[in-house]
Amino acid sequence: MPDEAPGKEKEPSFRVTDRRRVGAEGPRETATPDEAHPEARPDPQSPESEAPPPEDLTLPDLVRLFVAELQMRALIDMGLIPNPATRLVAKDLPQARLAINCVAALIEHLSPLAPPAERDALQQVVTELRLHFVRQSGT
To answer: Does 127 map to a domain?
Structure first.
């Protein structure tokens, strides 16, 4: 036996709001639960659903992010840490050299914008990567 009278539409218990920024065209769209697509929801177990990247990331902050990614890649390619995707340790010194050179170039452009303490820390990153590379290459 239904809880509601026939012909009366049931009020949804929740509302879906589309918060994507499309532009200044107008208000954001909203959808009722019947219109929401459950297959479009992100998987809570996937890495992409952890946290969205900040939309107001400045260019120097983006460069810092690239430096961190390339630093990690250099360490992986030197065989100092396992690859997170495969959990294997493998050396690829030409790729490590490329990553280190990219880190150095990015830091060269970022250093004039950084405070002195950060500038020193960035230079330390390049120095440590180069020392690790010399040790791993055996030269």
So the answer is: yes
pLDDT tens for 10-55 read 666 777 776 766 555 555 444 444 444 445 555 555 555 566 655 7
Its domain, for residue 65, covers 59-137
CA distance 115 to 11: 56
What span, in angstroms and rounded, lies between the C-alpha atoms of 117 and 71? 19
Q: How many domains does the chain have?
A: 1
**Lowest model confidence (mean pLDDT) among 19-23, 30-34, 71-75, 109-113:** 30-34
The encoded tokens of residue 26 equal 């107008």
Residue 65 forms part of a structural domain: yes
Does 112 map to a domain? yes
Q: Is residue 10 part of a domain?
A: no
